Amino acid sequence: MSDARREPWPDPSPEPQYATMAQQAEAASFGMWVFLATEVLFFGGMLLAYAWARGSFPAGFAEAGRHTKIFIGSVNTVVLLTSSFTMAWAVNAAEHGRRRPTAWLLAATALLALLFLALKGVEYHQEWTEHLVPGLNFREEGPNAHAVELFYFLYFMLTGIHGIHVTIGIGLIAVTMVRAWRGAFSERYYTPVEVTGLYWHFVDIVWIFLYPLIYLVGRSGP
Q1: Helix 70-95 to helix 99-129 angle, to the nearest 10 degrees?
Q2: How would you class 193 by CB atoms within 10 Å of its CB: exposed for 0-12, middle for 13-18, buried for 19 or more?
Q3: pLDDT interval class at 59 (50, 70, 90)
Q4: Is the pLDDT of residue 6 over 50?
Q5: Among positive and negative, which fits the CA dihedral 83, 85, 88, 92?
Q6: Which residues are within 8 A (CB) of 202 and not within 5 positions of it... i.e. 6 or more apart?
Q7: Which of 29, 97, 108, 165 would bridge with 187, disulfide CB 3.0–4.6 Å?
Q8: What is the pLDDT of residue 2?
Q9: pTM of the predicted protein model
Q10: Is 57 helix (H, G, I), strand (E, B) or coil?
């Protein structure tokens, strides 16, 4: 079936609590924005804790930052930015009723997200072998050892929770991709793609904040 004849399913009717599909779409978008606002508060609290700790132990955090794997972190930043582009492209394709391009672009986004997690796994393994995991095998010595350990505690907390969000995003994208391939969306109904895109862009934005805080600290000075 060509893209010119791409709608095997009829446009859906709104749920009983909504008068129109437009109202249902607005409610879904509003609900996602409210959820993202709570996530901003959640990550904001952790970032505030990081800012306090970094201000209290600048030398230790600078030393710890130089242990981070900046190459992997930089590659992962490019990977997530690329996934944000493919997601935005998928939303645009869905808006124009292009079923197969929407599905393929969502698949590309999910694969890039999996690559991000794989690279993060490699990074975690290296940090494990270097004994940088607080509470399990941390063996850093020196006058700044406690500050370095605090840095890595916050590092694993922030990147670990972000990784959970990436994993959830992969699941959402995969479900949306299957629905797109089956023709569930059209020019008049593509809200699930749009809402999934909002979530994924939030995940990318969080990483944009984490990257300089984690990988660039301690590398700008002597």
Answers
A1: 160
A2: buried
A3: confident
A4: no
A5: negative
A6: 36, 39
A7: 97
A8: 44
A9: 0.85
A10: coil
The amino acid that residue 3 corresponds to is D
Strand partners, 189: 186
Beta-bridge partners for 186: 189
Question: What integer pLDDT is reported at residue 7 of this predicted model?
Answer: 44
Mean pLDDT in the chain? 84
Q: Which amino acid is at 165?
A: H
Query: DSSP letters along 147-189, please?
Result: HHHHHHHHHHHHHHHHHHHHHHHHHHHHHHHHHHHTT--BTTB
Euclidean distance between CA atoms 98 and 90, whole angstroms = 9
Q: Cα(85)–Cα(56) distance, rounded to whole angstroms?
A: 38
Q: How far apart are CA 158 and CA 209, in angstroms?
A: 11
For residue 15, name the pLDDT band (cuts at 50, 70, 90).
Answer: low
Query: Which of 68-72, 133-137, 158-162, 165-169 shows the lowest per-residue confidence on average (mean pLDDT)?
Result: 133-137
Place of tokens 């859906």: 12
Total residues belonging to the chain: 222
